[in-house]
Amino acid sequence: xxxxxxxxxxxxxxxxxxxxxxxxxxxxxxxxxxxxxxxxxxxxxxxxxxxxxxxxxxxxxxxxxxxxxxxxxxxxxxxxxxxxxxxxxxxxxxxxxxxxxxxxxxxxxxxxxxxxxxxxxxxxxxxxxxxxxxxxxxxxxxxxxxxxxxxxxxxxxxxxxxxxxxxxxxxxxxxxxxxxxxxxxxxxxxxxxxxxxxxxxxxxxxxxxxxxxxxxxxxxxxxxxxxxxxxxxxxxxxxxxxxxxxxxxxxxxxxxxxxxxxxxxxxxxxxxxxxxxxxxxxxxxxxxxxxxxxxxxxxxxxxxxxxxxxxxxxxxxxxxxxxxxxxxxxxxxxxxxxxxxxxxxxxxxxxxxxxxxxxxxxxxxxxxxxxxxxxxxxxxxxxxxxxxxxxxxxxxxxxxxxxxxxxxxxxxxxxxxxxxxxxxxxxxxxxxxxxxxxxxxxxxxxxxxxxxxxxxxxxxxxxxxxxxxxxxxxxxxxxxxxxxxxxxxxxxxxxxxxxxxxxxxxxxxxxxxxxxxxxxxxxxxxxxxxxxxxxxxxxxxxxxxxxxxxxxxxxxxxxxxxxxxxxxxxxxxxxxxxxxxxxxxxxxxxxxxxxxxxxxxxxxxxxxxxxxxxxxxxxxxxxxxxxxxxxxxxxxxxxxxxxxxxxxxxxxxxxxxxxxxxxxxxxxxxxxxxxxxxxxxxxxxxxxxxxxxxxxxxxxxxxxxxxxxxxxxxxxxxxxxxxxxxxxxxxxxxxxxxxxxxxxxxxxxxxxxxxxxxxxxxxxxxxxxxxxxxxxxxxxxxxxxxxxxxxxxxxxxxxxxxxxxxxxxxxxxxxxxxxxxxxxxxxxxxxxxxxxxxxxxxxxxxxxxxxxxxxxxxxxxxxxxxxxxxxxxxxxxxxxxxxxxxxxxxxxxxxxxxxxxxxxxxxxxxxxxxxxxxxxxxxxxxxxxxxxxxxxxxxxxxxxxxxxxxxxxxxxxxxxxxxxxxxxxxxxxxxxxxxxxxxxxxxxxxxxxxxxxxxxxxxxxxxxxxxxxxxxxxxxxxxxxxxxxxxxxxxxxxxxxxxxxxxxxxxxxxxxxxxxxxxxxxxxxxxxxxxxxxxxxxxxxxxxxxxxxxxxxxxxxxxxxxxxxxxxxxxxxxxxxxxxxxxxxxxxxxxxxxxxxxxxxxxxxxxxxxxxxxxxxxxxxxxxxxxxxxxxx
Length: 1177
Prior knowledge:
By secondary structure, the chain is mainly beta. Among the domains are: 47-123, no CATH class; 424-511, no CATH class. It is 5% helix and 59% strand. The strands form 12 sheets. The chain has a 38-stranded antiparallel beta barrel. Strands 17, 19, 20, 21 and 24 form a 5-stranded antiparallel beta sheet that branches. It has a 4-stranded antiparallel beta sheet with strand order 1-7-3-4, with no helix packed on it. It is globular. Mean pLDDT is 87; it is low at 1-46.
């Protein structure tokens, strides 16, 4: 055997290796943990991991005795001959070939027996693997010994590879694409899922793929389908190993909280009272938390920013936690919120009313695509003395690899700039203005020109977007710097407008990203001195290097924290044989140094508000002392009392007193009340804050009455003064309600909403506003035929006259969501109704063309037609073939307050399900209809009743509508699904209006058609359609999307089936289309023929051959021909021939091929071939 080579430290550490002052800091805990895990693993190797084998073999003349076990542990063997145990030297064991020989000096006879005992590893491998084996057996009939071949298991079978206990499924794909205008491209794909037992003690679960799925899941459901999650997990009763995508979710003590989505290796072990883990991975994102208040009448979207106020971020799917007023929300359209991960926006559903009093907190992970981010972590837990003593520890190191930028590159000058910047990102910024490079003719073509102006007597230079101008010589890159902290506003992608200093959100600078490194470690010791008691001591340390390029400002990297807590869980107290109830107690002391930083937010979401910390110096060290008392005199009565003192630095001191009562009996009554008083001092400022919250319920039969109230009174003032200062407030909120629960499947409730707000004006509290409204909800599920839900929230906020004079306007919030499904008259009438409306903000959309591989897009770039160096929308044209661009939309920066409405209904009437024998019923049974109606509107209409009460005259208004769409479709069937004869009449109409960043677009489409299906003879059938279409689009003047098309098409499809597995078809089509938008209308007449052949192979495959000819004749060659007018064809004769083949060789192997050839308008012949094989298992 060769010598085992130890990997170099660089290989062990990968990109974690430090090139700065930290040296091999990570190496020592990694090696320590590695050997610790090996030691614990060795300790847990009990007898089930080894086997004791016994072989009994008669002495033979060859002196070769084959051993039955596979992996013998050297030195464990005991060999016995003639009742004597042999000593080493009297025998020889070959551990590789697994046989034993006796020494020639040993005395034994041919009649003796060799007894061998030894230990071997319990590895589920066989000594021999054979496909076939020759065996001899006695044949009873012939009374002779015969030789036969026994067929063993195929070495390449699924059972040989995976084992009998493994459940597996997946697909292997291999294919290629080649064509006249495309190079040979190979396609390869693997998706594999495994689960089951590798042995009696080892289980494997795996999801593997070599396909890349960069699509973020939609954040509109409670659970997410993470299509790109790939991992292998091996489980043992003492250990678990995971390689691939996984979540590291740990909470050790107060500060040691990790919840991260990672990609790498995770090891976990468990032995008796000891457990541990280690993780080496690439982190998908970094953590951030945002706290902000909602806005009246705005359900969203609320934009999430990065740590340094970055806007161009992507939220890691599923990493977010959203809280309102300290309560965690649920994701999903039917729950509380939805999230757009790609655009980093959260929108709240009508189930959760958002107001200016809503305190919103969001914890999330995001990626900014700047540096590869690596992570190493480890931790463990040990219990001693019957779990009376518990020790926990953890270490985490997470940082950016400064030598591995992702979407940018750093020059030597950039690195020097970052070295000088220290921890200040603004010092690492550089100018975003550069001179454009000359083209091949030496001409400089930029997009911005430099202009000078005078503002308040001061000379100023700014940049004006003017591509194509001879003065446009500059390329300018802008960065977001914060609301009203810049001089430019973003109008669209790449286009910024100068609006004056501190009036915009952008500046012409580039922020060089600072690579950071965070390290954290903590130790938690918990001891139970006596029953129901616990003493916990936690020590934590952290290091945060905000710029790994620089050693400046590194003196504040290290931080320290501790937490000491003693608690007695509620225990029964007896005095003189009288049970007084259960009492509980907890004492806590916590210190957090100002430089300490945790990996994620810890503690209560509203901790800062609870102690009025917003009044303090946020960067000072913090000391907290708390005492909590609990008393439970009865099982349904809980009384809690709390006192806490918090100091930050030398100036801030806060005392909090809290008492709460919880008295309840399910389905009978409930009483909850919480009172808090917070007194804070910060230098010359003092604050007193009273907070009350209560809820009461009383049940009578299925009727529940409830009342909720919330009241706060906060007074901030200077010491010695009596005038209140900004930050003081007072409000009262009262919400009584009545609810009927599950009466014959019917549930309904009504709640009254009332709130009065007072804020400071001239040193005293004055009434600012009064809000009132109602919440209604109805649900019915008492019949199989009808299910329905309805929820309506109406809230009016009216400002006092004083604040109306200051420009504040009354507002109304209306949130409605209704959904119903009906199945009536034995399913003769089925339908569904959906209606949802709410007030929010939205942005205009901008079309963006994204390059893709040739043949996978639906647009092609015509070139820089106007010579301005910008790829504009009118320079892209739709195409049916060889497209290399796709179009997508992104929201612009500016948000507009709107009311959003979404509604739809679908009804299917099938009178055939009615039973009856009358003439009318027989005639009516041949009739069926289907009706569909959908409407969507985003409008800034001030009178919102016009929108939610469906005043259609106010819809798609160019002055108020941001986006609007309307669709109505009516189908009438006669003898529907009858193969002999059937008719369909269709009328469909669609209207749309969109305010894009480039201008307004109005669309109109209408279809009127009749379809007839009939069978001439058993083998011959026909489908004929007459279709009248209108397709209008009114866009900006210079857009090539403008059109006004009317067309009439006749299409007749003959199908002949001489055999069950053979179909021959012949299609005739003729039509005329006219585009009336040009001054001289464009008229195109067309005729076409298609011949097809379909051949099926008895459920194994099919072959389809098509030959098509289309001829288009136009009345003019001067006008632009819209794609919608010619349908992707060219004027002249267009020929297409296609061959599509699919065949399943076995249950698990399928092949397919598609060939297409075409010649359009007399051009060259284009060939394309795609072939693919799929194996299923």
